[in-house]
TrEMBL record:
Residues 3-119 form the Response regulatory domain. This is Fis family transcriptional regulator. Residues 141-370 form the Sigma-54 factor interaction domain. Coiled coil: none annotated. PANTHER family: TRANSCRIPTIONAL REGULATORY PROTEIN. It comes from Winogradskyella haliclonae. The modification 4-aspartylphosphate is found at residue 54.
Amino acid sequence: MQHILIIEDEAAIRRVLVKILSEESDTYSVEEAEDGLSGIEKIKKKDYDLVLCDIKMPKMDGVEVLEAVKKIKPETPVVMISGHGDLDTAVNTMRLGAFDYISKPPDLNRLLNTVRIALDRKELVVENKRLKKKVSKKYEMIGDSPAIGRIKDMIDKVAPTDARVLVTGPNGTGKELVAHWLHQKSERNKGPMIEVNCAAIPSELIESELFGHVKGAFTSAAKDRAGKFEAANGGTIFLDEIGDMSLSAQAKVLRALQESRIQRVGSDKDIKVNVRVVAATNKNLKKEIADGKFREDLYHRLAVILIEVPALNDRREDIPLLVSHFSKKISEEQGTATKTFTDKAVKLLQNYDWTGNIRELRNVIERLIILGGNEVSEADVKSFASK
């Protein structure tokens, strides 16, 4: 059912609009308000899919109603109803966020067409929000331990800013999840999130990968190519395992952070970029600095905010939640019923030494789901966990 509210002080116009919309579709639930104040009270108490609002009304005019709706329920489309003398005002309401306007007396086809389009758009907005929420859950950090609580609090404080973040912690702890959460909760979430695994790219290619190259810059450069920094423009770039980056590439990254400009390999032309940098490493960068393997000035540019992700062995209280989460997720991926784990099985998993951290735990859960019984038991863990 799609809920429509008509705010109109002329009873005759209200009756006509109610009759037209009610007869058009049995999926329309139409309500009335005789002035702006009563209309706003209804909007505060209920979610409407569409509001039709007159411009000239006592107590509170249509422009004031529109401004209030945009503050209270900004996703609700508002169609203005204008008399002949209100057309200029109706056009101005479009600048204030009105979806459209309809002249009095309402033309039947124009009215119904506008209503259908407005309702379709509301459905798209709701669906986009649902999908965005679904995407963000993909990167949700699972755990109620104090350590994870501190990380979540830090992300909530830091994400709305453009501060650079350095995420540290052992392999397999979920440093990339922190980076994705920072992006999802930031104002840049409509922009791209570009990931670069610095350890997986040969040192001779890392500069081209990050900054791009021009045709002829080196033997295999057959054409101009944009790099990851350009691809991340307006969004976030995640430099994973930055401790493995060559010193020459570090120098260029430092310049990009200092000046918000890059140069493609083989070019002296500056390209302006607007990118938030989140970096991660499993190395002790202060030791790397002492050994001459990492630039101290780059470290201080990156480590405006430091977030340390603990090893799984340091937050064993989260293992029951992680077991439940991975069991559901893996079963969904395999199209099978979700398997439960006995309390003794979970307790045994809590007592293991998880040197591979979250990544290792997930692999073990998948193995137990495939090889274990309908309910994963302590015996299954002893047989198949291979600890």
